[in-house]
Amino acid sequence: MGIASRDSLRDWLRAPGSLSRRLARLGQRFTVQVLRQRVVPFRALERAALGLPPRGLTVVREVILRVDDAPMVWARSAVHQRATIGPWRAIKGLGSRPLAHLLYDDYRIHRSELKPRRLARHGHTRRHAARQWLAATGEAMPAQMLWSRNSVFDRCGAQLRVMELFAPGLRGQRPGRR
Questions:
Q1: Does 46 show up as a binding residue in the annotation?
Q2: Where on this chain does substrate bind (predicted)?
């Protein structure tokens, strides 16, 4: 996917506020399909983004965001395991509700700058997302699905990293208002 492909997703990569709320405006039905939520060892990028020590565990939640049953976004959130008994404890009971319910209704939560990133076609994150996408949808992840955005949310000194990987079906769609 070249510059033209990123440009067609540029508005989505930079849109502030709740991605879930923006997606919900594209159709009649918005759903969150939870792929997994569990405790895993830190990944280097997540550890660096969250300013965590070299060793430890993180609670990871991976989902597919769907509009009218069409998969639009694969997303991964990660938070230090200790934060789930403190500032981010509500993540444990989130279920299939969007993470936005926690992130945008609390004035104590602050978001970092959005950082667009092109994933390596054969990198670990892309391969992992592709396996989950296939299992959840029955279809291979589109080869053009390489652009993501990352941000970190801070609540009372505890950080949560969110990475969202956009399907090419969003090209040409306008993200609209929050």
A1: no
A2: 61, 99, 164
